[in-house]
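FW: tagging you since you asked about this chain on Friday. Here's the raw sequence from the shared folder, copied in full. Didn't touch anything.
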Amino acid sequence: MRTPLRPLARILLARQEGLNPDAIEKENLKLRHEALREKGRGRAQFRLVILCASFVMAFGAIGARMGLMAATEPMEPKSSAPGAEIIAQRADITDRNGRVLATNMTTHAVYAHPKVMVDPKGTAQKLAEIFPELDPKALERRFTDGRSFVWIRKVLSPEQMQKVHEIGDPGLLFGPREMRLYPNGTLAAHVLGGTSFGAEGVHSAEVIGV
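HL: got it, structure written out here
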């Protein structure tokens, strides 16, 4: 309930005591302004809390999404349309008796994003210990020359993959790959041709995948 600026009871009492009734009005007006100021301050604080909470939730959702994308392995896109599934792998090649001459094997490759590496020099040295054919100095130069992507090894055994993982540098990443495997070695190679990954070195029957 709103308090009147000139309450009759206080005005009459002030006149009896010989006081100025206008002082009562000024006092009540001051109290009313202070109450309005406190109410406005509380409303502004509430809006500020809501705004801060909205920013925290928005940036939290963005951070969670970025973390999820960074933690997942890169994959080839697939069609979402019904009945339009994309078949990425090559078909097996068999002879007339059904014996497999060429098939696929899933393996992993390791690559680097040098711009997010913590210790390029130490990482290059540890990779050279795992893969003796790599030159640690040349690898370090590739990590520090400003490029954003570096292939390290296209085929990894499970043991090598575990050792690379134990290095712990966030700039080292793994990607699944399909490797072409020929169980009979060079048998019928003049007909089959050969390929390693995807369309690398495709010849003869591998061109059409029959």
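FW: The chain has a mean pLDDT of 77.
HL: agreed, and The helical segments are 8-16, 21-71, 120-130, 136-144, 158-167, 189-192.
FW: great, closing this out.
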